[in-house]
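Q: I'm building a small set of examples for a reading group on sequence design. Run inverse folding on the following structure and report the sequence directly after it, with nothing in between.
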């Protein structure tokens, strides 16, 4: 088979689970669950009766990212707003102790 004559989708050798996680911006465990749930295309590679390594179709990852990036995920909470840290009494006591010993904090 000559690869040059085929479109790239026809000979997708796949990417590793870690690479797929970077493409989609999720954890590797999530990628494994997505492959098991058929949300993205993947297959097991390796020797023996039950190979453990997984390869994931790059085209499938890009399709999934495009289909699921139309808006924000309503289940994902917005990032926390920066708030000034409130010092606890124990923290203030520790600071006072260190200052009394001549340390700058």
């Amino acid at each position: 088979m000559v690869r040059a004559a085929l479109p790239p989708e026809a000979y997708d050798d796949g990417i590793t689970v870690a690479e797929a996680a970077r493409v989609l911006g999720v954890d590797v465990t999530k990628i494994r669950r997505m492959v098991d749930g058929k949300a993205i295309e993947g297959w097991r590679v390796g020797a023996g009766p039950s190979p453990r390594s997984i390869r994931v179709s790059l085209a499938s990852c890009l399709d999934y990212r495009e289909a699921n990036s139309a808006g924000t995920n309503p289940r994902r909470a917005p990032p926390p707003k920066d708030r000034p840290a409130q010092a606890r009494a124990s923290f203030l006591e520790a600071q006072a102790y260190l200052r009394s010993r001549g340390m700058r904090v």
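The mean pLDDT is 80.
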